[in-house]
Amino acid sequence: MAPPEHAVEIIREKKWTVRATAYGTMLTFPFEAETYARSYADGQAFRLGVEVFEFKKPS
């Protein structure tokens, strides 16, 4: 199965991480604050025309 061409994921762990996939290339951005991570994820999702997928990594 091929990876998605566009996707935005927000990962809740010790820090907040946004993983954005655009045109098949994935970039990861760490954030200290939840509000900054959500704002960035929302902006990228709007730009790419996708919804933000959120999950929490198990401890």
Topology:
Layout: E1 6-12, E2 16-22, E3 25-31, H1 34-48, E4 52-56
Parallel strand pairs: 1-4
Antiparallel strand pairs: 1-2, 2-3
Structure commentary:
- This protein has 59 residues and is α+β, with helices and mostly antiparallel strands.
- The protein has a domain of 32 residues.
- It is built from one helix and four strands, in the order βββαβ.
- The protein has a four-stranded mixed β-sheet, with helices on one face.
- Strand 1 and strand 2 form a beta hairpin.
- The radius of gyration is 11 Å and the shape is globular.
- It starts with 5 loop residues before the first strand and ends with a strand.
Tell me the strand order in the biggest sheet: 3-2-1-4
SSE order: EEEHE
Low-pLDDT residue intervals, each spanning 5 or more residues = none
Helix/strand structural class: alpha+beta
Strand-residue proportion: 35-45%
DSSP, total strands:
4
**Continuous helix count:** 1
How confident overall, as mean pLDDT? 90
What is the assembly state of the chains in this entry? single chain
Report the end-to-end length measured between terminal Cα atoms: 28 Å
Q: For the report, how would you describe the main beta sheet?
A: 4 strands, mixed
- Residues in helix, %: 25-40%
Overall geometry comes to: globular
Radius of gyration: 11 Å
